Amino acid sequence: MTIALTACAGGADPVQQESEVSAIQKKQVVELLKSIETGDPKPVSYINPDKYIQHNLAVGDGLAGFGAVLQQLPKGSAKVNTVRVFGDGDFVFAHTDYNFFGPKIGFDIFRFENGKIVEHWDNLQETPASPNPSGNTMIDGPTASKDLEKTAQNKELVRSFVDDILVNGRMEKLGSYIEGENYIQHNPQIGNGLSGLATALQAMAKQGITMKYDRIHRVLGEGNFVLIVSEGSFAGKWTSFYDLFRVENGKIVEHWDTIEAIPPQSEWKNRNGKF
Q: What are the residue boundaries of the SnoaL-like domain, all occurrences included (predicted)?
């Protein structure tokens, strides 16, 4: 699939220079993730060996923790296809189709400092066996960002949506954020449109399954794509929610997500926390 990398040319313009740096960082993230599959040692050099803060709670801190996980992988078992990658300042966030101890869809966030990767967060969900009720997978759809000049306002729009609807349950405001039946949904349990969302919520309620967003931790965006990292609960378990939204003309028109239960602290391999 095509990866959304920003094309850059030479020049002294500060905005252009920032775009060039972002493109380099995005390329490095894609190469680092791909190295899980290929075993190529070069991309590890993109990480600061003296400062690599790990927030995947199943992985030990630092480069040593990253290396230990790779050594546990059966040889030739890993597959990595990064479908989307975006940049926001010192952060790069990627959306990847994995086979990594089993098939998973993941969001990864990397923070750069002085040209090196110094911190990593992620959220992984097992890949479902079939598409959602509307035939969409967790990873398909548009990959390239646009409307870069609208990044700040799109981030604010999506932050307000999550705060109003998902955190505070102000469902009467839903129509002001979402483009009705044109809303494309990639959650494996939910169909397209507001009707698909309503049907899924009703089914969850009948099964006694509750989903609650309690706190927004991070908002990252590039143009019309915005990623929100939130904390809450799902089916009674402490949970991390990563939601990626695509915005068109001031409305949310498409949504991808991963939902991951947070293990009890006794099982953590590092003490950096999920967020």
A: 158-255
Contact 248, 265 (CB under 8 A): no
C-alpha distance across the termini of the chain, in Å: 29
Torsion sign, CA atoms 173, 177, 180, 186 = negative
Task: Specify the CATH number of the domain 14-127.
Answer: 3.10.450.50
Mean pLDDT of 29-53: 97
Cα separation, 274 vs 124, in Å, equals 12
Kindly state the tokens that stand for 98. 């994995």
> Class assignment of domain 148-265?
alpha beta
| Res 190 pLDDT > 50 | yes
The CATH 3.10.450.50 portion of the chain extends over 14-127, 148-265
**β-bridge mates for residue 252, sequence order:** 178, 247
Q: For residue 225, give every residue at least 6 positions away whose Cβ sits within 8 Å of its Cβ, in sequence order, or none.
A: 4, 84, 86, 145, 244, 245, 246, 247
pLDDT at 199: 86
Alpha-carbon distance 148 to 150, whole Å?
5
Q: What is the pTM of this model?
A: 0.93
Closest to 115 in 3D by CA, of 36, 230, 42, 24: 24
The pLDDT of residue 159 is above 60? yes
Percent of the chain with pLDDT strictly greater than 90: 80
Residue 165 pLDDT more than 70? yes
Contacts of 10 (CB under 8 A, 6+ apart): 20
How far lies 215's CA from each of 165, 228, 231, 232, 240, in Å?
A: 12, 10, 5, 7, 10
